[in-house]
Amino acid sequence: GKTLLSSNIAASFALANKKTIIVDCDLRIPRLHSVFNEKRTPGLTDYFTRKSSFEEIIKKSENPYLDFITGGTLPPDPAEVIGSPQMKIFLQKLRTDYDIVIVDSPPILAVADAEILSRIVDFSILVVTAETTEIESMQRSVELLKSPQGAFIGVILNNFDHKRSDKAYYKYSHYYYG
């Protein structure tokens, strides 16, 4: 749900006439291309390996304020790409060209990529799934995102079923207020 959620947040900014770009940085299981019904390549990794130019990897959506960059060719070591000095320069270029830059990352506990990204983006938001994400996993994820280098701003509770809200809400609210 995080890729679809990230895409919807990007679309919301675009609808507010903010020049927005979303970048697929889940280089192990990229999904952004499927949200936009586009090919995965050329994409981010193809730019880093000089197989494609910056202009070639920027893809336009139906909204004139929303662009996106797909993951590209699957790299042998995604963490190396994410943690490279090139990545910092790349993100800085996007910051100068766009009002809003949204980076879709892999799950933080699965691989180091998301933790590395959290240190080079302006802020991070954790997406958790109601009735699925364990509280301990959420707590550990928050700890990783609250590192001195990162700027963690909060959690989005996804797939929340309001019809079952009494039971589910207590589970998550107890973490914050208990």
Describe the structure.
The chain has 178 residues and is of the alpha/beta class. Helices cover 42% and strands 16% of the residues. The strands form 2 sheets. Strands 2-3-1-4 form a 4-stranded mixed beta sheet, sandwiched between helices. The chain has a two-stranded parallel sheet with strand order 5-6. A hairpin with a 5-residue loop joins strand 2 (59-60) and strand 3 (66-69). The chain is globular and about 45 Å long. It starts with a helix and ends with a helix. The model has no long low-confidence stretch (mean pLDDT 90).
Features of this protein?
single chain, 178 residues, alpha/beta, 4-stranded mixed β-sheet, 6 strands, globular
Task: Chart the SSEs and their pairings.
Blueprint: H1 2-15, E1 20-24, H2 32-35, H3 44-48, H4 54-57, E2 59-60, E3 66-69, H5 78-82, H6 85-97, E4 100-104, H7 113-118, E5 124-129, H8 135-145, E6 152-158, H9 165-177
Parallel strand pairs: 1-3, 1-4, 5-6
Antiparallel strand pairs: 2-3
Mean pLDDT: 90
Radius of gyration: 17 Å
List the strand order in the largest sheet. Answer: 2-3-1-4
Biggest sheet character: 4 strands, mixed
What is the H-and-E element order?
Answer: HEHHHEEHHEHEHEH
Terminal CA distance:
27 Å
Structural class: alpha/beta
Helix fraction? Answer: 40-55%
Low-confidence stretches: none
Shape, please?
globular
Question: Which band does the percent of strand residues land in?
Answer: 15-25%
- Counted by DSSP, the helix tally is 9
Strand runs, count: 6
